Amino acid sequence: MSILVTGGAGFIGSNFVLDWLAQSDETVVNLDVLTYAGNLANLASLNGDERHVFAHGDIRDREMVDKLLQAHRPRAIVHFAAESHVDRSIHGPDAFIKTNVEGTFKLLESARAYWTGLDGEAQAAFRFHHVSTDEVYGSLSADAPAFTETHPYEPNSPYSASKAASDHLVRAWHHTYGMPVVTTNCSNNYGPYHFPEKLIPLMIVNALAGKPLPIYGDGLQVRDWLYVGDHCSAIRAVLAGGRVGEVYNIGGWNEKPNRDIVHTVCTLLDEMRPDPAGPYSRLITHVKDRPGHDRRYAIDARKIERELGWRPAETFETGIRKTVQWYLDHADWVAQVQSGAYREWLSTNYTAR
Question: 345 by DSSP, 3-state: which?
């Protein structure tokens, strides 16, 4: 028995692979093209583990994906592979269309051909699990109800539009071809192995380096924060018991404005790694807001709790403490990912602001 994971060297994908193999002997075939955010160092603890089969390749490569499916005969595909940074999508949307839309289409076609050729029992048991985002639902006002699975799609960035398109493709392949799919839409993840361009790891890394902590606009944009380990457990629950063709929202029940997140990180660093120069909050700098910045996301995760009994194990307070401690303990990992290309990206995005 095996599963195929796409994007399993990225942030959420690598956490999922590590979590899966910590709890199961079922082989993971890990397909990743290793863009800037895909990092095999995330999976270093699996070196020599025969349960982890890494394949370097692109989900748009039909020939390669077809061969992987035929060689390993997975019972499920868990599709993480995606370009995922809103700011990068604003500066260069082309990559998001290629990976998130074209890539998902090509992967669905490979999966459909493979699934069609399975025998009755294996065909009935097969699942295509598409991992998506709450950003496809658009932006909420301060007092609006949280996103449910039936909320209309209103994507506002090239990133969220590309993910919305991929969600619609997955739905269409189910309704048109009968593909046994499930889709999950998650809120903002945080935790170990998070590439330091996203808010929480960027604040930790910059603070430790004595660099400015940039906050967009007034910093009152609200997000629901989900510890990545909880996201992994939710995916396992949906893969095991989710109803075919259904969508499940996964959230942390932790709505917080970005400004509060940054101050929380500063407070934890003041406690755990105090700076002789003074409180880390002295480094906070408000910069020009990004174009089309959604004001609020919020996930209503009652469906997955009602149907599958899942709730997050971490509060924001426990999860953020674990996260800050992980970055303090893994300075070598941070140094490795801070390549010249990464520094160039930070300069492109923030210096002009």
Answer: helix
The one catalytic residue in 32, 58, 87, 135 is 135
* Structural domain range at position 234: 2-190+227-253+293-314
The predicted pLDDT at position 351 comes to: 60
Residue 342 has pLDDT above 50, yes or no: no
Are 62 and 87 in contact by the 8 Å Cβ rule? The answer is: no
177 catalytic? Reply is no
In a domain, residue 288? The reply is no
Is 163 a domain residue? Answer: yes
Give the contacts of 344 (CB within 8 A, at least 6 positions apart).
Answer: none
Check if the beta carbon of residue 99 is closer than 8 Å to that of residue 81.
yes
Q: Please check whether residue 263 lies inside any domain of the structure.
A: no
Find the CATH number of the domain harbouring 143: 3.40.50.720
pLDDT of 78-120, one tens digit each?
999 999 889 899 999 999 999 999 999 999 999 999 999 999 9
Answer for the pair 36, 341: CB distance below 8 angstroms, yes or no.
yes
Quote the CA–CA distance of 270 and 278 in Å, as a whole number.
8
Predicted structure pTM score: 0.94
- For the beta sheet containing 255-257, the strands, ordered from the edge strand earlier in sequence to the opposite edge, are 188-190, 222-227, 255-257
87 catalytic per annotation = no
- Sheet with 247-250: strands ordered across: 52-56, 27-32, 2-6, 76-79, 127-133, 181-186, 247-250
pLDDT digits 0-9 by tens, 233-245: 999 999 999 999 9
Cα-based angle 148, 19, 112 (whole degrees, multiple of 5): 65
Give me the phi and psi of 203, to 5 degrees please.
-65, -40
218 in catalytic set: no
**What b-and-e string marks burial along 244-269, b requiring 16 or more CB atoms within 10 Å of the CB?**
eebbbbbbbbbbbbbbebbbbbbebb
Q: Which of 114, 137, 159, 327 is catalytic?
A: 159
Residue 208 lies in a domain: no
Read off the tokens for 83.
């370009």
Domain count, the chain: 1
On whether the CB atoms of residues 269 and 206 are closer than 8 A, the answer is no
Q: Which of 32, 58, 83, 134 does the annotation list as catalytic?
A: 134
Q: Mean pLDDT, the chain, as a whole number? A: 95
CA distance 167 to 37: 22
